[in-house]
Amino acid sequence: MIKIFDGEFSVESVLNRQIQSYGEFEQSVKQIIADVVKNKDEAVLSYTKKFDGVNLDSLEVSAEEIEQAKQSVSADFLVILKESAENIKFFHEKQIKRGFEVTKDDGVVLGQKYTPIEKAGIYVPGGTASYPSTVLMNAIPAKIAGVGEIVMCTPPSKDGKIKAEILAAASLAGVDKIFKCGGAQAIAAMAYGTESIPQVYKIVGPGNIFVALAKKLVYGVVSIDMIAGPSEILVIADQTANPVHLATDLLSQAEHDKLATAVLITNSREIATQTASEIERQLKLLPRCEIAKTSIENNGKIIVVDGIDKAIDVANQIAPEHLELCVDNAYDYLHKIKNAGSIFLGKYTPEALGDYFAGPNHTLPTGGSAKFSSPLSVDDFVKKSSYIQYTKNALEKASVKVAYFAESEGLSAHARSATVRFDKEQGNE
């Protein structure tokens, strides 16, 4: 049964967020990374046999395999996949930023330019699961940003193949190379490169604790998007919301993972009790009932508060990955939301829209990190460089000031570099 909190409470008392502990896995992941760095393809193939139970002759997915996959998926799925990709492309194209350049009166030129990351790696969970939506959400923004080479790693099934839906999505999204490997070994391979797998400059995409830890450990050699934790949903509902819909939306995240968190905040005690009963009823109907039940019992919460403004205050403290506003006039509250990965407005905007179809990215900050970080975007695949150009006259006017500043920090060579060009003893005119 989901827990209901009524009256006074602290956010800490209702949340079950724990600091991620990687200690028991860290040494194993470090050994895998070191092995891949030393033995490259041989190590990756060995771990693929050990963890995925399959002997591979080659890590790379062939063009023939991709074409066969595209032919094997249903025509209806391809139509939906293409429409979803178009929606994602439409949204992310709005994120493209341009540099700027200004020329001041004294001839000084100041500017900033954006440059795409040359090589990006995408990790897609696989094996028994299939997440073509993850392929689209990670590859399309990279493509829009102008990434030169997009490499994807995903673990194979027991038959040594990649799920057809994943390959179809990768082809549609413009992934350049696909490799049959998963886990920490895939992250290490993309970070350091092997004979088959190119070294990339940034790695994005979700994964289990071994993938998350590997990303953390290779950060600095490459960039990463984030360390993603278990999925979260927080729903704010008023007395007009439908408990059947609320329960369904909460369970849509609970079925992800036993560690997932589903929270409802409402100003109606009646809505709270009806939703709790509805969750119990719907749980019995889910194919992933045991996973969802564990998630609800351990991490599920219903919080009853005095009003929607109070509910939003609590939501801002929690900073959820997904936030649904199932209230009348939801748009009126948008400006009050300060901390959330993605916001779903109104009673006809379930979180699943964001997972698959609407267009905004579903790779979102978890564990409260929405207080300081953002969803995956085109920005993740570009770099900013500033540039400066001074004329002789402009430098001469600034040189004494630069030198004074540098000398105040005890850096005489810095000071000298600003003034030496105007020192007549050095033969300057």
Secondary-structure map:
Elements: E1 3-6, H1 11-14, H2 23-39, H3 41-52, H4 63-72, H5 75-93, E2 100-103, E3 109-116, E4 119-123, H6 132-145, E5 149-154, H7 164-173, E6 177-180, H8 183-192, E7 202-204, H9 209-218, E8 223-224, E9 232-237, H10 243-254, E10 261-266, H11 269-283, H12 289-299, E11 301-304, H13 308-318, E12 322-326, E13 342-345, H14 351-356, E14 382-389, H15 392-408, H16 412-419
Parallel strand pairs: 1-11, 4-5, 4-7, 5-6, 7-8, 9-10, 9-12, 10-11, 12-13
Antiparallel strand pairs: 2-3, 3-14
Helix pairs in contact: 2-3, 2-8, 2-9, 3-8, 4-7, 5-6, 5-7, 6-7, 8-9, 10-11, 15-16
Question: What can you tell me about this protein's structure?
Answer:
- This protein is an alpha/beta fold.
- Helix content is 43%, strand content 16%.
- The protein contains 16 helices and 14 strands.
- The protein has helices at 11-14, 23-39, 41-52, 63-72, 75-93, 132-145, 164-173, 183-192, 209-218, 243-254, 269-283, 289-299, 308-318, 351-356, 392-408, 412-419, and strands at residues 3-6, 100-103, 109-116, 119-123, 149-154, 177-180, 202-204, 223-224, 232-237, 261-266, 301-304, 322-326, 342-345, 382-389.
- The strands form three sheets. The chain has a six-stranded parallel beta sheet with strand order 1-11-10-9-12-13, sandwiched between helices.
- Helix 9 links the parallel strand 7 and strand 8 (223-224).
- Helix 15 (392-408) packs antiparallel against helix 16.
- The radius of gyration is 26 Å and the shape is globular.
- The protein starts with a strand and ends in a 10-residue tail after the last helix.
- The model has no long low-confidence stretch (mean pLDDT 94).
